[in-house]
Design a protein that fits this description.
- It is a single chain.
- By secondary structure, the chain is of the alpha+beta class.
- The chain has one domain: Pseudouridine synthase, CATH 3.30.2350.
- It has helices at 47-52, 78-90, 163-171, 184-187; strands spanning 17-20, 24-29, 69-75, 94-102, 109-113, 116-118, 126-128, 137-145, 149-156, 195-203, 210-214.
- The strands form 2 sheets. Strands 1, 2, 3, 4, 5, 8, 9, 10 and 11 form a 9-stranded mixed beta sheet that branches. The chain has a two-stranded antiparallel ribbon with strand order 6-7.
- A hairpin with a 3-residue loop joins β1 and β2 (24-29).
């Protein structure tokens, strides 16, 4: 039920490269492709293995869920991987996501602080677990409200697996198109998961300067809404 037996990653574009220098590559990952390879042979095709065809030393500094689209920075050298890895570990990397969620979110902004652990009975799903869970914090802002959905900007302070999807469910507003954490009715409100990593800021591993990348979601935006922060 929760596997990737129907895995069929998009072939075009092979890699959507937004920026590249000798140390890093910044890509716009489409929904439907893994960041790193899975254990089964049919899950080998992913963003990392595609990059490694040209840069064998490329590594994964962070991940996006298969169904999540958006910004990925891939270090091409071991030195860059170490520098970026420390930034993610120290939480100095800033990430902003955008999502359509079900229902009308009444609060303009807020924070969700609920611990997350692997759901052993339903791998790879996660669950809220106050005994075994690791702390997970998500800040949110509602940018637009419709009759049956809301548009959200999400800031994951921590980086737990499935954090945003699970936290939105716990808020009472699952993400549209989510086949794992939403009801069938909410899942069918979109043709794929409407969660997009639209903004990524970090210190360039070569120069040390702060850099910021932005890319618009592949799904429709609400009318008249500015999604990025100044």
């Amino acid at each position: 039920m929760f596997g990737h037996d129907d895995y069929n990653p998009p072939a075009e574009p092979f890699l959507d490269i937004l920026y590249e220098d000798p140390a890093i590559m910044v890509l716009n990952k489409p929904s439907g492709i893994l960041t790193v390879p899975g254990k089964e042979e049919h899950l080998h095709d992913c963003i990392l293995t595609r990059v490694q065809k040209k840069y064998p030393l490329a590594a994964a500094a962070h991940r996006l869920d298969m169904s999540t689209s958006g910004l990925l920075v891939v270090p091409k050298t071991r030195i860059a991987a170490g520098v970026l890895g420390r930034q993610f570990q120290d939480r100095t990397v800033e990430k902003r996501y955008f999502a359509w969620v079900a229902g009308v979110v009444t609060r303009d902004e807020g924070e969700i602080d609920l611990p997350i652990a692997l759901d052993d009975d339903n791998k790879p799903l996660q669950k809220i677990d106050f005994v075994r869970g690791r702390r997970a914090v998500t800040q949110f802002r509602c940018l637009w409200r419709g009759s049956d959905r809301s548009f959200m900007r999400l800031h994951p302070v921590t980086g737990r697996s499935h954090q945003l999807r699970l936290h939105m469910k716990e808020l009472g507003h699952p993400i549209l198109g989510d086949k794992w954490y939403a009801t069938p009715e909410i899942r069918d409100m979109a043709d794929h998961l409407n969660l997009h990593a639209g903004e990524l800021s970090f210190n360039d591993p070569t120069t040390g300067k702060r850099v910021c990348f932005r890319v618009d979601p592949p799904f429709d935006l609400p009318p008249g809404v500015t999604i990025y922060q100044d």
